[in-house]
Every structure is written in C-alpha cells, then in structure tokens.
Amino acid sequence: MQLSLKESISAVIDTSETINFSEFGNSLPLDQALQESLVDYDVCFICAYDTLFLALKHGQDLFLFDSHARNEFGLRHSNGKGLLLKLSSLDHLYQYCCNMVSGACQNQWFEVTGISTSIVREPVMYNNDHKVPENHEQMNNTDYNDIENHATINTSDYELPEIVEVEKSRPSRKKK
C-alpha cells in the first residue's frame, strides 16, 4: 500500500472572522481546510486537542469515522459509541467538528491532513541487502518486474457496510 500525504493544514473555527491566517503559515478556516484536504485525497485525518477522527470519500459519498465514545451530536459521552456516519456534505462534516469542540476554548485549533491511498505490489524486504536471511524461506514468490505499473484502488468496486443502530437488550427478570 502506498500513502501520499498532503501537507497538514492548521485550521480553526473562526466564528468572529478576526484571525489573520496569513500570520500562521499553512493555516485556513476549518471549512476551507476540510475542502482543501478532500479535494484530491481519499481520506482526511482531523485532529483537535486530544482526539483524532477521519473523513473518507467513497465515490460521491462522504463518511465520518470516529472511534471515540460520542453521543448523536458528536459530544463525548461515557455511554456513547464509535461512529460511522454517512454525511450529506462537507458542511455536515464542518458542523460535526463544531459540535465536537463545543464548550472548548474559543478558536480551538485543528490539524487537517489529506491522504491518498493506492495498492502497490512490493517485494518483502528482509534486510538492507534485499536478501533472504539464512534459515528463512522466501515468503513471496510473485514476479515484481512490473512494479511501476500499479493501479490506484477503485473504491467503487467495494461495498461499504450499512450503518445499523443496535439496541442493547436488557436481561429479563423472572417473577417468583
């Protein structure tokens, strides 16, 4: 697998529109950073203070994955669940980010990084000499002469799992 990372963008929810982003190097308002990071990339890692989640493009669809315990508004919750949400738009992703940091200090900074993935067939390398060490067999005997001509993953060939809400059942109590 080959990963291509876009340069990370520092971003903030600038509701007051008072921040001069040119003073901070590679920084943008959060809504623009999300758009910039997903325009030519498959995945976007979004980091804010102590949490990381990601947005994924699949064809024309946009999904959000957050493995942390969240409620339906994206806020931390001790009985919350990890989320895989199909988003209606980039605005929906932006709103999730806003909800996630509600109650945090004003002008909470984010780090946004776009990532592109592709599958590349590469030989297994055992050491710097590219030789199989003694007492070990070659693990892969695939011909790698055509390694330069790899194809990018076409995610439309794969079906994503459907998001299903699962209710917890309570054990029944027997009456005596």
What's a concise summary of this model?
The protein has 176 residues and is mainly beta. The chain is built from two helices and eight strands; from the N terminus they run E-E-E-H-E-E-E-E-H-E.
Unreliable sequence segments = 135-161
Distance between the termini: 61 Å
**Main pleated-sheet profile:** 8 strands, mixed
* Backbone shape: globular
Number of helical elements: 2
Helix content: 10-25%
Order of helices and strands: EEEHEEEEHE
CATH topology of the domain at 2-117: Cathepsin B, Chain A
CATH class of the domain at 2-117: Alpha Beta
Q: Provide the gyration radius in Å.
A: 22 Å
Protein structure class: mainly beta
Mind telling me which CATH architecture of the domain at 2-117 this is? Answer: Alpha-Beta Complex
Q: How much of the polypeptide forms β-strand, as a percent range?
A: 25-35%
State the total count of DSSP E strands: 8
